[in-house]
Amino acid sequence: MPSLDICFSPELLPLFDLRGRVAVIVDILRATSSMVTALAAGVTHIVPCSELAECRALAAQGYLTAAERDGVQAEGVDLGNSPFGYLDGVVPVRGRGVAITTTNGTRALHLSLAADAVVLGAFLNLAAVASFLRRQNKDAVVVCAGWKGHFCLEDTLFGGALAERLQADFDVTASDATLAALDLWRTAQPDVAAYLLKSAHVRRLNHLEAHQDMAFCVQQDEYDIVPIWRDNQLTINNEQLTMSNEQ
Amino acid sequence: MPSLDICFSPELLPLFDLRGRVAVIVDILRATSSMVTALAAGVTHIVPCSELAECRALAAQGYLTAAERDGVQAEGVDLGNSPFGYLDGVVPVRGRGVAITTTNGTRALHLSLAADAVVLGAFLNLAAVASFLRRQNKDAVVVCAGWKGHFCLEDTLFGGALAERLQADFDVTASDATLAALDLWRTAQPDVAAYLLKSAHVRRLNHLEAHQDMAFCVQQDEYDIVPIWRDNQLTINNEQLTMSNEQ
């Protein structure tokens, strides 16, 4: 039985040997939630960028750009980091590539490339990620983007939720991190949004739009897609695209 | 109101600025539990060593030596890493200095020396540590020794227990790490030993002696002392010694 482990911060990644394993990158508020939403909404592929300048350079190649600074949309880009930007129709996104700056999420992803496969996880595609991992049948590690390297509750809860879904097929007891995430996930039931209102990150984002985003981002199984890292970009395969378009 | 934060692994210490703060080093199984027990039993001071060779060199200067390898007492030393070694009378310890090798605990301590004060925490001296922190009235960080850099449940539970004791006097909501530790501590109630039986570390130590040690190490408030780092050794002040000797 393969095992599911959880890495609480990119700073702890040197402790994990990702070779032969699947890495699930998670940054619930809001990078991976927004990226899953973007691809489900018909974005063709995503280039995650560490720097705003890198993002803007891709605009010249026809990319839409998405970035935030201090919780609001950055100047001179097309979209902020809210998932609603891909749904509200203000900026048409279907058929476009998007360059997105995210500090924590991009760092977690770039540090995980030794893995056999690197995919994005969010509550929005929880069931799809669980199915993907079952099909891979390899050891998996949830890589929490965290907050500037620190442990954060929302990414940990995702790890616990995934462990709960996978406990019949994966060993979810091999590490204390997974055991703790499972217990925190059970504590957060039945109202994950209410539980997260106490988190330090959510309190930092204490304004209406952020709370709407948070309520959206904790919805489970909205999108049946698994963004995967391939050729330096995040994409979903054609079969997934067809399913997504039919929805 | 000062804040109480928790650092889940020595690997995360670079994220914490310890200047002006008190660091509470915790390695429940078993380094800090054994050191608290040793000082309460009349050991005059402790030199924590990373290497067995360093420990053996101090034997020539009159130190008792304590070390384990793979869960059992190392060859050629006086004591293992069980707290019972300081209580069972087989090796007289009162009035002696002890050189102890511990991998995780020593590393956590040496990486925390930028703090204003560095003290040892264990369930055994939980109330004493809480009182010490109240008197200091400074921001404090619990530094979990963890397991080879990884998150571990038992040190985290200590952080949660300390946060619960201090919540009237300290801000225990400023970081997600402290919030998570509090919730895990509440989940572990009322039977902390039973809860820890599922932890990866305890299962690694799955033999009778280790379980006896674990049951001992989760007892709260047995010793009213706070080991403090001073002049490259761990000691308790004279007032504490007097109290300890009178017990």
TrEMBL record, chains A, B:
InterPro entries: ComB-like, ComB-like_sf
Key words of the record: Hydrolase, Magnesium
Catalytic activity, reaction form: (2R)-O-phospho-3-sulfolactate + H2O = (2R)-3-sulfolactate + phosphate
Signal sequence interval, chain numbering: none
UniProt EC number: 3.1.3.71
Ubl conjugation listed as a keyword: no
Pfam families with a match to the protein in the record: 2-ph_phosp
Cofactor: Mg(2+)
Protein family membership: Belongs to the ComB family.
Protein's UniProt name: Probable 2-phosphosulfolactate phosphatase
